[in-house]
Structures are given as structure tokens and as C-alpha cells.
Amino acid sequence: MNRIDVHQHIVPPFYAQxxxxxxxxPSGSRTPDWTARRAIDFMDAHxxxxxxxxxxTPGVAGWDGEDRRAMARxxxxxxxxxxxxxxxxxxxxxxxxxxxxxxxxxxxxxxLDSLDADGVVLLADYEGRYLGDPVFQTLWAELDRRAAVxxxxxxxxxxxxxxxxxxxxxxxxxxxxxxxTRTAVQLVLNGTLDRYPNVRVILSHAGGFVxxxxxxxxxxxxxxxxxxxxxxxxxAAFKRFYFDTALSSGTAxxxxxxxxGADRILFGTDFPYAREDIAGFFTDTLDADDTLTMSERSxxxxxxxxxxxxxxxxx
Length: 315
What we know:
two-stranded antiparallel sheet, about 15% strand
């Protein structure tokens, strides 16, 4: 396998240290220790050639004003140094200081032009506004101009936390797939994907519920939005997303393949928030999936990602 992991997280030590004073992690997730050596050891153990690193939820949403911009810049500079040290093993989804649009646009320029980032990571929502909200259209327009790759991760911020352990169910266990689904549906029904067709958008965790409820969303769209396109158009828009496999192998893969096609599926692990044994379990389950042909296995493992990222186009 020549695997490229598009859903692997970096946890800069200064970020982890500062997070408790800036709202902590509203999802209730532990903040794992991270080092490049530990990441590479994990990758070597699971035949992962390379990984595109991103900061997970809650990103920099707990900081305010210039402090938020400064933390995003510091994270991106740190990650760029990790990539520069091992360009054969790592890439970088840059963090933007949203919902600060001016700051986000400035950081996008710096990340893509000066740091050679491979794309950007966006949370599903910021202060209760999901990514198809008109407030973000200026950002989408710039991402479209640059034909950028956007990795969407479920949102959980100090302003919009996921449900905190309702009935003993931790937010990330159930609510994260819903967060991804809600922002994806809004991006489609608000026409964002149609207006900005050059952006390549990756949805985390097999797209939440999108592949399994897309027909529902398409068929009911005009009930709630009479101006919505016809169902076939809506379904085609949903199929333009890419979907990573993080924490989503097993019975999810045949459904995802049936909906989106194997050429839209990308390998992901969610390491280190998913511990080595958990990430390994899902990877092993994916390897054992006999619904994928050998050529489809190769496409999902790395060939699809290599087409998205020039860094590994020759891999």
C-alpha cells in the first residue's frame, strides 16, 4: 500500500499548553501528546507513506482578535517547519483565524504563498454559522480562485459546543457526523458548491450522514426551499465532495462507494485523537473489505489523494 492519510492531526506543544486558558476542547476530547517521531512510527506500522497534518477541533476559536491571528500564524509556521524537515512524510492543511474574515484571507495568502501549504482546514461552523452561510462567501471566492483543497472537520467551539455527554454519550461519538452533515447540506442547498466549483472539498468521517441520506436531502429540498434545484442536480452536487475513511470503515465503505464512487474516497485515520490501536483497528477493517477491488484499494489508499496534492503527484 502507498497510503496517503488526509485526516491526521498535529498538536503543537504550545497550542496544547495554551488551550485550557482559551476555552479548552468543548468536545470533551483529550488533547493527545504529539511528536513527529511518534507520528512517523504510527505511519510506518500501518504502511502510511505520507500524511496531511491539520489542527483539530476547536482550532483557534478560543482566542480573540489579534491573539487568534497570532496563534493561527504560529501553528502554521510550526507545521510548515515539520513539513520542511520531512517533506517526504508530511503535508499541511493550514489553520485560518475564522470567523475573522480579514484575518482568514491574510492567513490564507501567507499559508499558500509563503508556507506552501497543501490546503486549509475549516471547522463545520464558527459561532453558530455553518460554512454555507453568506458571511463566508468572500473566503469561498478566494479559495475558488486558488482551486484550493479544503478539509472540513466537525466543529466544536466555545461558542457552539457539541452536546456535552448527553445520557453518557460523548459529543464526538454522535454529534460530529451531524456537524459535518449540516454544513455539507448547507453548502449544497445555498449554492456554494455551484458558485465555487474549483474548490476541492473533503468531508471528514465518510461525510457524516451525507452518503446515506443524500436522497432524502435532495428529494425534500424543494419542500423547504421552493427555489432549490431539482433532485438530480442536488444529488450531483453532493457527489462532488471527497470523503475520508477516518473512523468509518466496515459497513460504511460499501454504502460510500455506491454513492460517491471509489475515486472520491480518501484514506484517513484521525491519529492521534484516535489512538494507535483504534486507528489501526479501522485501517485493518478497511484492508479486509472485500467490496473494494484491488484497483479501488489502491485508489482509496493513495492514488486519489496524489491527484489532489502536487506534493505527492509522482508517488
